[in-house]
Design a protein that fits this description.
heterodimer; A: mainly alpha; ABC transporter involved in vitamin B12 uptake, BtuC; two-stranded antiparallel ribbon; globular; B: about 500 residues; alpha/beta; Rossmann fold; 2 domains; six-stranded mixed sheet
Chain lengths: ~300, ~500
Amino acid sequence: MFALQLKRVLLPGFTTVTALLILWFAVTTQGFFTLDNARAILASMVFVGMVSIGMTLIMVSGAFVSMALATTATISAMIFMASLSFGLPVAIALTVLVGALTGALQGVAIGGWNANPIIVTIAAAAVLEGVAVAFSHGATINPTGTSYTVLNAHLFGLPVGLYALAVLALTAESILRFTRLGPMIYLMGDNRAAARAAGLPIGRIGTAVFAIAGATASLAGIFMASFNHSASLLLNRGTLGYDAIAAVLIGGAAIGGGRGSVLNTMIGVAIIAIVSDLVLLRGFTTGEQILLKGLVMVAFAVGVHLRQEQRA
Amino acid sequence: MKPPSPLLSVERVSLSYGRFKAVREASFSLGAGEVLGLCGHNGAGKSSIVRMLSGLLRPDSGQIVLDGAPCAFRSVSDAQRQGVALVDQELSVIPALTVAENLALGEPGLGLRGTLPREEARRRLDAVGLDHLDPSRPLEDLSIGERQLVEIARAIGRDARLFILDEPTATLNTADIEHVFKAVRRIAAAGCGVIYVSHRLDEVLALCQQIVVMRDGAVIAEQRAEDLNAAKLVELMIGHAPKPVTKTARTADDGSRILEVSGLSTEPTVDDFNLAVRPGTVTAIAGQVGSGGSDVLRALAGLAPTAQGDVMVQGRRVPLGAPRRSISAGIGFLSADRKGEGLFLSRSISENLLATRLRALSPHAVLQGSRMRATARKIASRIGIDQNRLGEPVRRLSGGNQQKTFLGRCMERDDISVLMLDEPTRGVDVGGRADIHMLLRELASQGVAVIFASSDLEEVLSLADDVVVMRAGRIVSNVPVAETDNVRLLSDMTHARLSEQVA
């Protein structure tokens, strides 16, 4: 009861205040409103953006989150670098295939056997991490050849990866809206028992969702490796997976499933990119950066979800 | 003698959900010491009125006047402070605490496990007729009815003046219903007002002095209970006298069987269940809750992992244990647990209607938007749901319309030859019930075999062609409906000899 009243008081101002605070920060930060900085922000959306596409589908399908996507990206980066000797197209195809397969295996357990998604994906992350260590012997994997640099190219002033992100996001959103899989994902996320009783192929839906998530995480890995001209265990610096989860929540997807959209998640990705950029320009220490980013994400996620609760 | 100003008056109150007008300029009043019955077809606007009076929703226009003062409730707790107590299916008492601790919940100055002085707890329990209940008993030992009474007792402690009881007896047994009645009479005698919302017209007529009937969001009648009877009430609620369900003329048995079940058993309930069903007939599996009818249907639907037995649909064997297999064999199933295992509550009506036919609407996996809209509209008009509401979440529908939406999922389909329903009209009011029965007869006349499990004698006798009675997991009798009546049914359900040989 008290919480309800608290919400009523806090709610109208909540998101607005946070947004104004960020705007004020932006105005008073030197170098924020420049074309170069805008490009930098957009470019920094690529990796988190790709991972969060898959994360959105997972959350909408009712499987909460995957803890394995960041590691999938890391190991994909390694596979990509190591397989460049077969040529760029083959390397990309092979890497995405491996990513999709690792996702699909988790999806079979989660969708088909109703295993707990958090446990399965944490276990998968541990296994993948182990494979990554064995694969790289802890060393940095360097590319053979320079064919990958085309992925770092710029088109009309923006990196190729950003176009790839846009295409992926639109494709995923179209899958949700215009294909048979889309409504099935929403229905399963809303009520798994009802979906089963209604005869929806829940095993296959779960497998498809996790396979797509694995594929988009691999693509993130491919672009990460190209950007860094190498791949190693340190590639994702630990925040990739959490940033993606935060982006999905800021985008308003329901934690329990049944609601959410990839395009809204992209707004979440943009907000995270802007905040990361601001704390960087302001010259905060790494610790302070993480703290501030965390606070902003909490504020947004809470604000968005309070609003939805009121509408429901 | 009526007091000069009533305890509650609702004045020209309206409420819309989007384009749908749930309540249109409804007005009625309630005096202190009075019990007012609120009746209506599903979707008539009763629940919306309850939600506005309890602070869950605010009216778009009009006002609610309590004790002569207009009030705008800002929240449920605000409404509680101003003296409104809502008692509905979702009880806010806490099973892990004792009765006394529950009574003390929310009392200023007492913590979560604080207790009231013993006399005070006693006084409140006495006020609702729980004279012999020990306040130190844990609440989880109490029946649902007694828990409701504890909730009412708690509201008395908050000095509530207006009590709203929303379907209080829907899940209660006869003894508990009697308790609730006594408590209602006592709180009314103490000068409080009670609004009693129920589908059970006999209860409303017995308990209330004043009856308000709603239809399509408007108040149709506000009359003294002594001027009304059940037949008149039904007529007011649905706008015309109820049509009797027409049964398909009983065709001669040509020996065709659409469904054949032999030796079906499920651990631990059903034992050696046999049944043969002809197309175009309605079969009831009657029995008290837990007698096995529901388990039989669940097994046939593929939802019972331990089920064993031979099931043939149109001469083809159906493997048990996978819902998808049963559905592709042509068996449709509507669970009794509409919310847990049926509807997708936060998704739209049209998504719910189309959930099971997505494959047919998406050749090459791409959805055909216009065909989907057309199909949804077609089903909606057949089941009688406003087409303007198709985009609304199912959560907002009344129980009856939710059940119709659920049923709509299995309509307009050629691939379902056997439709099974578990308690097809549980939580559905008189009008909705008649509609659903009519829809089921219509499906049967198109050649579908309809099978339903029910513990409601009247439903069994009025809807079925053949009646199978079960008790303790076994078939007691299987006869055409003409050869049975409610006396025989009830005796079969409760105490007839189990050893009787069944054809």
